[in-house]
């Protein structure tokens, strides 16, 4: 039996559309297969799903306001410069990002938020950051060689993580000769700690943000990851995202972060293992 050409074309198109519906499924995020190689008892971050162990819940989030065009440049001090002892002047140039503005978004009211708005995190030698709301300021830094990481921060202290939103450099302060080998390889994989910090109380203590900064590495299942040990409970993080921590007890809490490879071995680096304490007020 012969069929009209238009009917054959219509049937072919229908079959093609049906086949398309079967094959055009969303790509699976690599973090959905997280867990390979994780040590026994650890929990691994998946695509936006919470991890929970020993009463602690860790939830990644990625729906904060985006600032993809934001740029930060550190004009002074110059990388590798030797500076006079004492207060070190910093001078930044920032574009497409407003300091002192409230970031907004769904998480600003859920976590500790700076009343002064968006700012710069300035971290020296992976010590607790200082927050700055102007592009020019001075900071006391002791004599010696130092590592300075700077990055743009939302008002609730979540870092901007794209290229161009941070600066990493080594500076020398005082007259002592610089070491023959710099204290950090700025081209190697490096981990820096950011949050949590200090004391949390009231509403701010219900959801506390864990945030860290990575340079020259990515995280993925089967690749480099961050091992976060919170009050002795281990979580393996394979996505560079901020995380909300819930269920933390009142009193002193401890976070240990380690940058590890696919086998769970720590990657060499002066700050790739760091432990901090913070307080949850009763």
Describe this structure in words.
- The chain has 282 residues and is mainly β.
- The chain folds into 2 domains: 29-60 and 188-282, Immunoglobulin-like; 64-186, Sandwich (Immunoglobulin-like).
- It contains 1 helix and 19 strands.
- The protein is globular, with a radius of gyration of 23 Å.
Helical stretch tally: 1
Identify the CATH homologous superfamily of the largest domain: Immunoglobulins
Overall tally of structural domains: 2
Ranges where pLDDT stays below 50 over 5 or more residues in a row are 1-41
At CATH level 2, the architecture of the largest domain is: Sandwich
What overall geometry do the principal axes of the alpha carbons give?
Answer: globular
How much of the sequence lies in strands comes to 35-45%
Strand segment tally: 19
In CATH terms, what is the fold-level topology of the largest domain? Immunoglobulin-like
Write down the overall mean pLDDT.
Answer: 87
Order of helices and strands: HEEEEEEEEEEEEEEEEEEE
Strand order of the largest sheet: 1-16-15-18-19-13
Helical content stands at under 10%
């Amino acid at each position: 039996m012969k069929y009209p050409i238009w009917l054959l074309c219509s049937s072919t198109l229908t079959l093609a559309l049906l086949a398309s519906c079967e094959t055009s499924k969303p790509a699976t995020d690599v973090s959905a297969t997280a867990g390979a190689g994780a040590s026994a008892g650890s929990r691994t971050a998946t695509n936006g799903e919470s991890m929970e162990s020993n009463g602690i819940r860790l939830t990644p989030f990625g729906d904060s306001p985006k600032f993809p065009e934001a740029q930060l440049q550190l004009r002074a001090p110059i990388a590798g410069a030797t500076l006079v002892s004492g207060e070190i002047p910093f001078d930044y140039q920032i574009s497409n990002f407003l300091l002192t503005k409230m970031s907004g978004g769904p998480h600003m009211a859920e976590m500790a938020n700076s009343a002064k708005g968006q700012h710069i995190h300035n971290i020296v030698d992976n010590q607790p950051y200082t927050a700055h709301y102007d592009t020019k300021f001075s900071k006391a830094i002791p004599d010696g060689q130092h590592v300075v990481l700077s990055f743009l921060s939302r008002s609730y202290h979540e870092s901007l993580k794209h290229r161009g939103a941070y600066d990493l450099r080594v500076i020398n302060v005082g007259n002592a000769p610089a070491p023959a080998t710099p204290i950090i390889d700025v081209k190697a994989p490096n981990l820096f700690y950011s949050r949590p910090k200090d004391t949390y109380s009231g509403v701010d203590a219900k959801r506390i943000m864990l945030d860290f900064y990575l340079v020259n590495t990515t995280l993925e299942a089967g690749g480099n990851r961050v091992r976060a040990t919170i009050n002795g409970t281990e979580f393996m993080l394979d996505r560079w995202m901020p995380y909300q921590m819930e269920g933390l007890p009142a009193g002193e809490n401890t976070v240990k972060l380690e940058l590890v490879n696919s086998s769970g071995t720590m990657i060499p680096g002066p700050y790739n293992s760091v432990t901090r304490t913070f307080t949850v007020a009763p």
